[in-house]
Design goal:
mainly beta, Immunoglobulin-like, eight-stranded antiparallel beta sheet, 11% helix, Lipoprotein
C-alpha cells in the first residue's frame, strides 16, 4: 500500500511538470473500488495508472483478472497480485495514440475466485 501511495504522490508531483490534462476516473461495486488516472499531453500522448481495491467482506483474493475498455482502446491482465487488498492495473503510456477523453465512461470487469463484477468509471468533476 505504501508503494502505491508513494507512486500516486510521485505522479501527482510530476503532473505539475507536464503541460496537459489529468483525468481522474473512479467507480465502485459491491466488492471493489477502482481508481484510474490518465495524464494527456499534446493531444496524442498519455500516461495511465490504475489501482483496484478490494472492499468486500472476508479476505481479499490473492490474484485477480481484469479487462478495461475505453473508446480509445483497452487493456487486460491476468494473475494480478493484491497487496494489502490493493492491486495495480492498466499502467502504461503511449505516444501518437488515440487518447482517453475526460467525458468518457470506462468499463472495467474484475474476475476473482470464480466471481465477476463490472464497474463503470467516470471522471470526478
Amino acid at each position: 500500500m505504501k508503494k502505491i501511495s508513494g507512486l500516486l504522490v510521485l505522479l501527482f508531483i510530476l503532473s505539475g511538470c507536464v503541460d496537459g490534462d489529468r483525468y481522474n476516473f473512479s467507480g465502485s461495486s459491491e466488492n471493489w473500488d477502482v481508481f484510474y488516472v490518465v495524464d494527456v499531453s499534446d493531444g496524442t500522448n498519455q500516461v495511465e495508472d490504475g489501482t483496484v481495491k478490494f472492499t468486500g467482506d472476508g479476505q481479499a483474493p490473492e490474484t485477480i483478472e481484469y479487462k478495461l475498455e475505453a473508446n480509445s482502446g483497452g487493456s487486460e491482465g491476468t494473475g494480478i497480485t493484491l497487496s494489502d487488498n490493493v492491486a495495480s492495473i492498466a499502467n502504461g503510456s503511449c505516444g501518437g495514440c488515440a487518447v482517453i477523453q475526460e467525458d468518457e465512461e470506462i468499463e472495467v470487469e474484475i474476475t476473482w475466485n470464480g466471481q465477476t463484477e463490472n464497474l463503470l468509471l467516470t471522471t470526478d468533476n
